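All the exercises in this workshop are built on plain-text protein records. Instead of coordinates, the fold is spelled out as a row of discrete tokens. Once this layout is familiar, the rest of the handout is easier to follow. The record below serves as our worked example for the rest of this section.
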Amino acid sequence: MMIFKETKLKGAFIVELDKKEDERGFFARAFCRNEFSKQGLKADIAQINTSHNNKKGTLRGMHFQADPYPECKINRCIRGAIYDVIIDLRPDSKTFKQWFGIELREGDGRMLYVPEHFAHGYQTLEDHSEVLYLVTQFYVPSAGKGVLYNDPAFNIQWPVEITSVSEQDMSWKPFKLEGTLKCSCGS
């Protein structure tokens, strides 16, 4: 079994391992398509990606894939620690433009389920942090979009000084709804 706790952003969940412990350690299910489906969550994994980050304070995000290639993500920190952040970009949602952040640490048994049409990013809290992503859509470069990590439209409060951000992540335009979730992508 897995433990699902909905965040303040409808459709986004913290997923915790239900550890079965004994003198050897523990065993837990880290993913089950049936359990995700019972929660109404997309669970057809297309890719599993990993990201290693050398320095504390590194920021990656805020990324998403636009229609017709939206993706869900299931993120888990497998080394070090991160502050994982999502933004609801669904215009018809009661939590539109609101963000949610959670600390994920190596060994804590927690993951973050990110629904379609949410931007996602994180900041490392320790050197040599690594993140594992289960993704429901194949990567389509022309559908890759993002919003500024420091856009006043969202006012995300990052927990530590930002030490590194990619040029791409600094180049996103200030948020505006028109065309954000759509793309004129070829297949």
Summary: Residues 183-187 have pLDDT under 50 and may be disordered. The CA atoms of residues 121 and 183 lie 20 Å apart. Helices lie at 33-38, 167-171.
